[in-house]
Amino acid sequence: MEVSERLISVVLVTWNSAHYLPRCIEGIRGQSHPRIELIVVDNASTDASVALIEPHAARLIRNESNLGFSVAVNRAIAVASGEWVLVVNPDCHLDAEYSTRLVRALDTAGPAFGAGTGMLVRARGDEIEPIGEIDSLGIRMTRSGRHLDLGQGEFPERWTAVVDRDLPAGCRLPSGAIEVFGVSGAAAMYRRSFLQELAIDGEILDEDFFAFREDADLAWRARLFGWRALCEPTAIAHHVRRVTPRTRRALPPEVNMHSVKNRFLLRIKNEGAFLALRNLPFELARDLVVFVAALTIERTSLPAFSWIWRNRHRLREKRRAIQMRRTVSDRQLARWFR
Fold first, then answer.
1. What whole-number distance in Å separates Cα of residue 127 and Cα of residue 325?
2. How confident is the model at residue 2, as a pLDDT?
3. At 10, is the secondary structure helix, strand, or coil?
4. Coil, strand or helix at 272
5. Which helix (H) or strand (E) holds 307?
6. Which end of the chain has fewer CB within 10 Å, C or N?
7. What are phi and psi of 113, to 5 degrees?
């Protein structure tokens, strides 16, 4: 089947996103790919989000309360019909060729590649105006337990990819594309088969994450299950990044609490013994910084630790379900943790 004949389900989660939506919708409607269905889940917005998006949505799901990003995306995927699922944040604007170029790149790379991203360029303001520097080329992992955005803060014309040639038989990256650990959820293209295989107890995105770091969790689980991800830099999108270390003190307390909680969830579920021992000095040092900060300057994040303790038995079951299904060893994954 030709690329143009295949359906892409675009998933958009809104929560008081009205100020970004005109520009975001413009990018989705302007895609050169002819077969797109837009599925919107609104998390009980109190602004004009629903009124703005309803005329454009093939399906609109309205939650009675803010159930979080992960729940909303899972509900959208459950009703999606596309062979491909493109998750887009409201503060993101897609260039016209974004979806077409990603599907072509993933087709060329082969079925082992289940996720793809383009080059996300940092933007600002309600008009999602690009400011030139890279926002994300995908997710990169560190030995301290952090996940960061590849290429962030660099300039596209100066960025040089380190190409990894260790590809399985039958895989071939398009010219200029690179393999990455995983993709940012701001504008992520997924094979539907990839999402279905990664579900744990019916959840594709882990709903314990509520919001933030759920894309890194999905990427790590995908790696454990043998899936790969790529970046196609000729597919361009612009993204307003609101949550950064610099803005942390200005963020709502619940945002920072989930960020702390989810940092530990990532490792509790996905990290095996080899990686835990290899990364131990780096992780402990970072964990100490996080814990001291929660005790002193960010006490509103302390509930993250009690939440983990209260839910320890359920988290252990999730970990067991993932580790039993893994097909890739920690030794094979270690090269991604730098």
1. 44
2. 74
3. strand
4. coil
5. helix 303-310
6. N
7. -90, 110
Residue matched to tokens 């030794």? 331
What is the pTM (predicted TM-score) of this model? Answer: 0.94
DSSP letters spanning 62-131: EESS---HHHHHHHHHHH---SEEEEE-TTEEE-TTHHHHHHHHHHHH-TTEEEEEEEEEEEETTTTEEE
Tell the residue number behind the tokens 């107890």, with chain if given: 201
Q: For tokens 């080059």, what's the residue?
A: 119
Residue linked to tokens 């093939």: 58
Question: In terms of Cα–Cα distance, which of 228, 103, 109, 223 is closest to 171?
Answer: 109
Q: Would you give the end-to-end CA distance of the chain in angstroms?
A: 40
Tokens of 120: 């996300």
CB atoms within 10 A of CB 116: 29
Helix (H) or strand (E) holding 306: helix 303-310
Encoded tokens for 248? 């942390």
* pLDDT, tens only, 72-115: 999 999 999 999 999 999 999 999 999 999 999 999 999 999 99
What are φ and ψ of residue 229, in 5° steps?
Answer: -140, 155
CA distance 188 to 191: 10
Q: How many CA atoms lie within 13 A of 282 on its CB side?
A: 13
Each residue of 220-237: pLDDT tens digit?
999 999 999 999 999 999
pLDDT grade for 219, boundaries at 50, 70 and 90: very high
| Cα dihedral 318/265/135/236 (nearest 10) | 10
236 touches 132 (CB < 8 A): no
Find all residues with CB under 8 Å of 292, minimum gap 6, and list them: none
Mean pLDDT lowest for which of 16-30, 155-169, 264-278?
Answer: 155-169
Residue 58 is encoded by which pair of tokens?
A: 């093939």
